[in-house]
Write a structure and sequence with these properties.
single chain; alpha+beta; five-stranded antiparallel beta sheet; 8 helices; 47% helix; elongated
Amino acid sequence: MAHLGVHHRKIAQLWPQINGMVERFMGNINYAVQQAKLVQIFVEQALCQVFRHNSCPSELVLGRASRTHLPHWNPRFHQNTVTLSYVTKRKMKRQADAQHHATTSGLKLADLVLLHQRQTHKSDSPFSSQHLKITNIKGSMITAAAGSYSTTRNSSHFREFITSDEDEGEARPSDEQTSLSEDTQEPIKAALPNSEGPLQAEDTQEEKDHEKERSRPTRVSKKPKRLIEEL
């Protein structure tokens, strides 16, 4: 199929119906091979008996040449169909990505990642503790490996693994930043008033006066009249 432009991955099929048809056809091939050995003819001649009389099965059945020829195809029409199919698929992909809020993963080659694992218990973490290293990227398909173990999954199954050195580098400020922060804090402290100065005393006095104004008037609590009449 390669010379026809069909490229596919060599993966064993998991379709019982097709596997059964192939196994059934193997019996016919074995029968033809055994008959060829008994009659002492070539195996190719037994499997393809058309070459003995140089006639196709339709001519033998109908007794005449077939009037139906193979259909011809227009290369220009084929190219237009391929282009329209490509544009339509791109539009469908954009719509699906927008509906699912899809974003780029941002993962690169040689990055350390964690692989999503199936949780069998509630105590299991969603990602495996063993980090992997990205070895190949093809679109959204990422291949990661660790030693002899290798796996290929969609980019959504991976999360970037951040080492402790990167965390410390982000958390600790540099020497220049610490010196600048100390230099900027000194004039600010000098501009602030002293905690024991007269400004603080004035503020406390104003707060006390404001609290007195907001205090509700006291009133004598007594039983309601309806309770007195009932008694």
